[in-house]
Amino acid sequence: MTNDLAQIIRALPDETLGALLRLRPDLVVPVPSDTYALAIRSQSKVSLARALDSLDQFTLEIVDAVRLRALPDHPAVPRALARLRERFLLVGDDLVPGIEEVCPPYAAGLGRPAALLGDEIAELVSDPARLRRTLLSAPPTARAVLDRLAEGPPVGTASSSDAVDWLVEHRLLATIDEGVVELPREVGLLLRRDGALGPLHPEPPAPAGTQREPSQVDDAGAGQAMSVVQHAQDLIEALATESAPMLRMGGLGVLQWRRLAKAAAVSEVDAALLIETAYAAGLIGELESSTDTVYAPAAGYDQWRNAPLPQRWARLANAWLAMPRQPALAGKRDERDRPMTVLSGQLDRASAPGLRRTVLTALAALSPLAPEPDALIEYIRWQAPRRMRGREESYRDTLREAAALGLTGLGAITSYTRALLGSLTAADDDPLGLRPEAELPPEETPAVVMLSALLPAPVDHVLVQADLTVVVPGPAEPALASELEVMAEPESGGGASVYRITPASVRRALDAGYTAHDLHALFAKRSKTSVPQALTYLIDDVARTHGGLRVGPAGSYLRSDDEGLIAAALADRALADLQLRRIAPSVLVTPYLSARLLAALRDAGYAPVPEDSSGATVLTRPRARRAPARPALVPQLEPELTTARVLGIVEELRRGDLRMRAARRAPAEVRAAAGHPMSSLTAVQAHSQALSILQQAVRDKVKVWVGYVDAHGSAASRLVRPVSIGAGYLRAEDERTQTLHTFALHRITAAAPAD
User: Fold this and answer.
1) Kind of pairing, strands 550-552 and 609-610?
2) Rounded to whole angstroms, what are the CA distances from 130 to 110, 122, 193, 510, 604?
3) Do residues 27 and 21 lie in contact, with contact meaning Cβ atoms separated by under 8 Å?
4) CA R_g for the chain
5) Is the pLDDT of residue 562 over 60?
6) What span, in angstroms and rounded, lies between the C-alpha atoms of 232 and 234?
7) pLDDT of the residue at 736
8) CATH number of the domain at 664-753, out of 2.30.30.100, 1.10.10.10, 2.40.50.1020, 2.30.30.30?
9) What is the CA angle 44-49-53, rounded to 5?
10) How many Å separate Cα 713 from the centre of its chain?
11) Nearby residues of 279 by Cβ (< 8 Å), 6 or more positions away
């Protein structure tokens, strides 16, 4: 069959051959040497299974019909047969060899022919009248068993019931193994009322759902996009405050996972999604020390935090589309009953990116319909039933994750997500398949531009209320967000964020280097409302006591110009553990380091500031720990072959055919080593014998046929004149092309004199 199929493929026009390569792209990885190698690869089990995986439910039903030699009379059948023929799964009226091995054992859910199940059963089904009488005489319970097996699969476990015993005794069921029975194909065909194949499904099911207004979908998705970016930032900031240790086997511990979920105010399921996505986006990394390894914000996090919100969302969305991970598995148990943890290797799933694109592509095809999850799964199942098998829960998890990340809104796909998907499809008019937007800066990509138009413009002002709350009427620009992070406590997020000014937040701003004058000027500049008198008094009161105590590195010491304040600190029971000792009217010392002294004083309600050895105050923001920079994952282009690429491959196959025809003149040993078909193959020469022939050819300066394996693993042969052998290589001249070739000796499979 291989020779015949190779001849058929070789006779195809370039356009038809190119269409085959587009439909089955795995056939050109790597590019085969000629059409004969292409024909061999197209019949391999792996390639046939991939081709069947891409077929819809109706086409697979027609595959079963061809196997049963029972094509239904339906107007959609010719189109299904055409799909099989253009993929070279059907040649003429027969399926190519090997398909039976990758298809389910029971075609259309029917059993094997009676002739394979026993002579007595074959005798019964050979008499239609007797078979009908036997069926009509079956008890109701036995008939129920038959009807169930007729729907498929046709095998079942035999119980000790009277119904099964009656069916076995009357040869309507065959015992094929201990405790296992099978319904003969002829009996199943007779029992089926909808024909040999049962109910056919020529069209995909119409999903149930709700029609949504695109503008409402986009608004809902954009709002969720704002929230998820903020939640991701809160989670990473919590990781910056307290890094999380890596487990010995890799991954994040359950307690740390829950801590981060609480800090970001999200569920544990959403926290797992955000952690995995942020890691894939290069925002979280591993920080190694002499004692352990911890997870901490990566070096690229600060740049991401200061970028505009649409770009920050796009980085997270691209990482989710690209990462080969399944966050929804976190917290469940693997096949060894071990708990699967966040960021561990147990969550690796190579099929995850393809699954996400399948779900989003289906939503895009149904837009503006927001289908119900189960209805969408049935719609996707019709498109590729073999891929869906046993993975329904993964598709539901993907739908939930897409909604949580703002890729969908109100159950439908958003316009900016559709633009994001479009940028991941190869451009057919470019030889490299690159789209124009691939060269655009991040802020000008279509998805970012569309999301920017949906989000409110960043604001550079706040509204200060009399109760010391600060309202940010929209997403804060990076500079304003950085200021509020230092001097206010967040209370709520969303479209309008709310912060509160407290003594602790003012003290934190003073510790970071702000003065009372700076804070007054900042609020006067940023606030669109008049600054409340209570805020002015609060800043002045905290600033008046700020720095009244000084902490220095002398084991450490505590000093103040206010002797009364020193006496109060010495008598304060809350500071008893520091073992403070007075060495001067205005100086106390402690055996502990200045960092602990500072923390204890602040916990006790004091407002100390550190100073260096010269007595100058040290007011700086705490230095954040950052893990080494990690590149963000980006989704790759869909593996589609562009027209230019297909034409190039077809041209290479045609050249390979010419080389194969020339190679047919080579000796039998060389042709056999090159893998070409022969009527009677001779034994392939041993490698050492081939080297002897080549060495003799170098001495005699004569031509030889050389069989070898090229860099792509394809076998070939060439008539050359050897020039030299050394350093593991043969150098030979091809007089036909006037070129000098170099062959690695370990790739040479055979050699024979030209005569």
Assistant:
1) parallel
2) 21, 12, 19, 100, 99
3) yes
4) 37
5) yes
6) 6
7) 67
8) 2.30.30.100
9) 155
10) 30
11) 285, 343, 630
Of 5, 197, 209, give the one whose Cα is nearest residue 92: 5
CB atoms within 10 A of CB 95: 17
Q: Which helix (H) or strand (E) holds 742?
A: strand 739-744
pLDDT in tens, 227-266: 999 899 989 989 988 888 998 888 999 999 999 999 888 9
Compute the 3-state secondary structure of the chain and give helix, strand, coil in percent, each to the nearest 5. 50, 15, 35
Residue 684 has pLDDT above 50, yes or no: no
Q: Which pLDDT score is estimated for 682?
A: 40
- 752, 666 Cβ separation under 8 angstroms: yes
Query: CA distances (Å), 450 to each of 228, 314, 646, in order?
Result: 18, 11, 34
Torsion of CA 227, 230, 236, 238, to 10 degrees: -100
Q: Token pair of 330, please?
A: 């976190």
Distance CA 62, CA 64 (A): 5
| 3 state DSSP class of 172 | coil
Instruction: Tell me the two tokens of residue 683.
Output: 């034994």
Pairing status of strand 155-157 against strand 180-182: antiparallel
Q: How far apart are CA 200 and CA 79, in angstroms?
A: 14
SS (H, E, C) 652-719: HHHHHHHHHHHHCCCCHHHHHHCCCCCCCCCCCCCHHHHHHHHHHHHHHCCCEEEEEECCCCCEEEEE
Question: Hey, what are 209's tokens?
Answer: 């759902």
Measured distance CA(263)–CA(243) in Å, rounded: 13
Give the C-alpha separation, 281 to 634, whole Å: 8
pTM given for the model: 0.74
Classified as helix, coil or strand, 611 is strand
